[in-house]
Amino acid sequence: MTTPDAGSTVLTFQDTTELRVGGSSTVVLDHFVYDPGSRTGDAAINFSKGIFRFVTGDIQNKSNVKLTTPTTSLTIRGTNFKVVVNDAGTIVAVTKGHVELKPCGGTAETRLLGPGEAAAVSTACTVKAVALSDVPTDSGTDGGGLGDGTRGN
Hints:
Blueprint: E1 9-12, E2 18-21, E3 26-35, E4 40-55, E5 65-68, E6 72-86, E7 89-103, E8 111-113, E9 118-122, E10 127-129, H1 139-142
Parallel strand pairs: 4-5
Antiparallel strand pairs: 1-2, 2-4, 3-4, 4-6, 5-6, 6-7, 7-8, 7-9, 9-10
């Protein structure tokens, strides 16, 4: 899915996981399967370009949620976080929970980010801390109301 320059959208999955997609962004949803009886599932999402906010829902086996960008793989743990993908690489900023960054598919330094932390993964697979004030914003991912980034399991 690709959003126009001034567009944005919110995808809410059966387990209440929410994916906010900002303007000029592209995301590929390979699959998202959820069994409400067991609260387990499986998902694969690729953040290709742009700004996104991902807020986990009721899925219990979060290790089966495979999130990737062109420069890193993300492992989530009860999480609310933002992803920015641009020509320089990927920025991840965590609001709640933890995100493990595995640059270049796990071939470079792995970094665990917690609430209030952000890091950038370059196209050369290096990781560096980023101030939250330096993380780009977008009204489609940072706006108020339901899905304003305050929820997260």
